[in-house]
Amino acid sequence: MATIFITGANRGLGLEFVKQYAQQGHHVIACTRHFTQATELSQLATLHSNIQLHELNVMDEEQISELTTVFKNQPIDVLIHNAGVGGFQCEALGGMDQKGWLEVLTVNTVSPMLITQALLANILASKAKTIIGLTSILASIDDNNSGGRYSYRASKAALNQIIKSLACELSDDGVKAAVIHPGWVKTAMGGADGKITPAQSITGMMNVIENLQSKHSGSFFVYDGTQLPW
Ligand SMILES: NC(=O)c1ccc[n+]([C@@H]2O[C@H](COP(=O)([O-])OP(=O)(O)OC[C@H]3O[C@@H](n4cnc5c(N)ncnc54)[C@H](OP(=O)(O)O)[C@@H]3O)[C@@H](O)[C@H]2O)c1
Q1: Ligand 1 test: best mutation among 29, 59, 85, 111, most atoms within 8 Å of CB?
Q2: Residues 32, 58: Cα–Cα separation, whole Å
Q3: What local confidence, expressed as pLDDT, does residue 159 receive?
Q4: How far apart are CA 138 and CA 156, in angstroms?
Q5: Does residue 106 line the site of ligand 1, with CB under 6 A?
Q6: How many A from CA of 199 to the centre of ligand 1?
Q7: What is the domain count for the chain?
């Protein structure tokens, strides 16, 4: 049994991660920013005693700092940076402003770094020592042939750099870090036209995470195990 820590776990891909890891019998620390609005997650937690709920707004630096104390001496095998925003309010040329842009950067880029920093001792104390960032194919500079989505593309490309740096810096400690594009998934963010269901995406990503070896650390995966160009 491993301990899995997931941000943004109340809906979409985060909720499906919780479901599938809990069904496999793992200890799941499921973070959500509003307990009161996490009805489905709360119901799931009543069915599975291995789900531990924790309130975390990833934009709240104080809550992030407190993670070190709250989870002191608790090994965390897999840290999944799932919480994300699409930046739809500031994605087009002519439609951007500093406030909107900084929110996207804070949630998608800065918070994963600060959360990793706060929980590093927990990761190092675990068996799997794995850090995963939910990225997007839109972060790939090689693949960018259409432009647009400025804040989102930039925030996820920067997340890729962070995870790559963590993979390099922590390799001697046995830490594995990778980013995964979940596919185009039918969630609030992906919309109804998404090509796959959350269940398909999560089954694939859990397979990638389970089979992640040191030699793959620092890679840019797709949920089906293939890799993307940076
Ligand atoms: N769906 C896709 O097609 C797709 C494709 C590529 C990458 N991704 C990435 O996959 C991840 C999950 O996406 P999704 O499709 O599941 O999106 P989603 O349905 O919009 O869910 C986003 C999750 O992030 C949480 N979140 C946002 N801001 C937060 C904050 N400040 N503090 C805590 N939680 C916060 C949301 O919580 P609230 O309910 O409180 O807002 C929600 O749980 C994201 O990182 C996204 O960029 C998705």
Answers
A1: 85
A2: 9
A3: 98
A4: 8
A5: no
A6: 15
A7: 1
